[in-house]
Every structure is written in structure tokens, then in C-alpha cells.
């Protein structure tokens, strides 16, 4: 299927979904569960998380997760490329979910992708077209484990592997304090230097 003309899909009633329940736990909890009292980290030095030789541990975890069905919606649009329309630059952000902890995180992501689209559309009105197709994606379900982007990627796996040349993430575009660290690329370092 083409990436650009499929109306959407639903993962309900699909036999290929696993029935295995998975509960993510933190690395620090894993370290407590599998390490012996003699093998604690010394002086903050990182060590691999592994059981001592020939040791077995049985861990019982009581999970009180309540399963609920939620509708997750992705918002996807595109600007068709002029020279290589079958090559995609995917620009992804996320939009608000009910369980977002930091409102500024989703707001900044949405504001930046909206401003980016607006700026490109002003150029399009003056006759400009990108060489490649730019696909704009605002992912839903981010707070639930990036469900929106994961399912979209699964649905279009073959098309994405064949046609995507870059992914630009605007997931958390604004972070930190007033310091700017230009470590992303040499061209960004040069721009900041100038």
C-alpha cells in the first residue's frame, strides 16, 4: 500500500497480536532483583546486569494494571516532492494525550511542527517545492509507549524501509535551561560559532 493514500487502520481483532503481558520495570529494580549483596556497584562504576554464576532467581511481581481500550489518532499530512516524490522525509512530533506529565513538552512539539508547516506553505505559495516528499506526522499515544508511531511504522514497514531517507524528530524539541549546546552536527556548530 502507498504511504500517502491509506486512510488508516485499526489493530482490533487481529490474530497476530501477542497475548503475552509485558510489564516494563526500571534498570535499578532489575539491579536490586538480580544482584547479590557482595556485587554492589563500587564508586558509581557501571557494571553489567547479570546473575552470578550458576545462580537462579525466581521473582514474583504483582501487577495491578487495568487494561483499557483507548482510541489513538495520528495526524498525517504531506507535501509532495518535485524531483523524487517517492522518497520521503518524515517529520514527527506528538500531540497532547490525557496523561502527559509536562504540558510544555507536547505544546512545544505541536507549536514547532505547526510553525514549520506554515513556513513551508508560505514558500509553496511562492512556487517552491521540495525535491523529496515531506511527510508530517503528529503521533498519538505517546504517553502510552509511543503506540501511534509504532503502529504506523508497523503498518507501513515495507514502504518506509524502501522509501524513507530521513526522520526528523520534534518529539521534545525544547529542553533544558538557557544554555545552547551545538553538538548535533558540524553545520550547527558553525552556525552557532558565527
TrEMBL record:
Q: Which SUPFAM superfamilies match?
A: PA domain (SSF52025), Zn-dependent exopeptidases (SSF53187)
InterPro entries in UniProt = PA_dom_sf, Peptidase_M28B
- Extract the coiled-coil ranges from the record: none
Highest taxon listed in the record's lineage: Eukaryota
Protein family according to the UniProt entry: Belongs to the peptidase M28 family. M28B subfamily.
UniProt protein name: NADL2 protein
Q: Which organism is it from?
A: Crocuta crocuta (Spotted hyena)
Amino acid at each position: 500500500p502507498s504511504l500517502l493514500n491509506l486512510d488508516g487502520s485499526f489493530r482490533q481483532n487481529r490474530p497476530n497480536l501477542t497475548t503475552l503481558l509485558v510489564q516494563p520495570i526500571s534498570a535499578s529494580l532489575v539491579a536490586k532483583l538480580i544482584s547479590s549483596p557482595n556485587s554492589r556497584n563500587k564508586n558509581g562504576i557501571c557494571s553489567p546486569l547479570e546473575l552470578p554464576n550458576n545462580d537462579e532467581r525466581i521473582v514474583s511481581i504483582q501487577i495491578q494494571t487495568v487494561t483499557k481500550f483507548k482510541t489513538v489518532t495520528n495526524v498525517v499530512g504531506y507535501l509532495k516532492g518535485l524531483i523524487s516524490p517517492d522518497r520521503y522525509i518524515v517529520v514527527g512530533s506528538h500531540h497532547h494525550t490525557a496523561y502527559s506529565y509536562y504540558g510544555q513538552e507536547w505544546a512545544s512539539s505541536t507549536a514547532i511542527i505547526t510553525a514549520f508547516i506554515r513556513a513551508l506553505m508560505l514558500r509553496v505559495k511562492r512556487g517552491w517545492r521540495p525535491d523529496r516528499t515531506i511527510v508530517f506526522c503528529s503521533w498519538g499515544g505517546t504517553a502510552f509507549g509511543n503506540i501511534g508511531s509504532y503502529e504506523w511504522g508497523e503498518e507501513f514497514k515495507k514502504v518506509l524501509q524502501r522509501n524513507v531517507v530521513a526522520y526528523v524528530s520534534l518529539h521534545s524539541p525544547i529542553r533544558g535551561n538557557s544554555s545552547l549546546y551545538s553538538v548535533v552536527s558540524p553545520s550547527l556548530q558553525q552556525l552557532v560559532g558565527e
